[in-house]
Amino acid sequence: MTTALRHDALARFGYALSDATRTQILMRLADAPGYPSDLAVEIGVSRQILSNHLACLRGCGLVVATPEGRRTRYELADARIGRALHDLVGVVLAVDPACCPGSDAHGCC
Predict the structure, then answer these.
(1) Rounded to the nearest 5 degrees, what angle is found at the Cα of 51, between the Cα atoms of 69 and 30?
(2) How far apart are CA 55 and CA 78, in angstroms?
(3) How far apart, in Å, are the Cα atoms of 98 and each of 66, 73, 91, 102?
(4) Which H, E and C letters describe the chain, residue by residue?
(5) Beta-bridge partners for 71
(6) Which tens digits make up the pLDDT trace of 5-41?
(7) Please, are residues 75 and 29 in contact by the beta-carbon 8 Å criterion?
(8) What's the predicted TM-score (pTM) here?
(9) Residues near 73 by Cβ (< 8 Å), separated by ≥ 6?
(10) Quick count: other Cβ atoms within 10 Å of Cβ 63?
(11) pLDDT tens per residue across span 88-99
């Protein structure tokens, strides 16, 4: 893989993670495939907002959609994405558990 492709892949992954709703979708899909209506309820957003985020994640190549009758099932495009997400969370928490949105840590995030 060329350096440009690597940078593009990481940029898409970073963009996907830059939004809390997209991050929640990815983390839920890392555990199991899901359906938009169920994901919207679990995350607490409208179906339209969820649909917009799923379209973004599809465009980034991180999730795939599979039609199942009248419903569409979403899952991560590759199981390694789920492992990477769980690993990333573990690393971030190990490096500085106080560094997260809303924390009182200074000079962080």
Answers:
(1) 80
(2) 17
(3) 39, 36, 13, 10
(4) CCHHHHHHHHHHHHHHHCCHHHHHHHHHHHHCCECHHHHHHHHCCCHHHHHHHHHHHHHCCCEEEEEECCEEEEEECCHHHHHHHHHHHHHHHHHCCCCCCCCCCCCCC
(5) 68
(6) 889 888 888 999 999 999 999 999 999 999 999 999 9
(7) yes
(8) 0.81
(9) 33, 34, 35, 65, 66
(10) 25
(11) 888 877 666 666
Please state, in angstroms and rounded to a whole number, the distance separating the CA atoms of residues 50 and 27.
14
Instruction: Give residue for tokens 């607490």.
Output: 44
For 11, the token pair is 């940029």
Please name each of the domains of the chain with its CATH number: 8-86 (1.10.10.10)
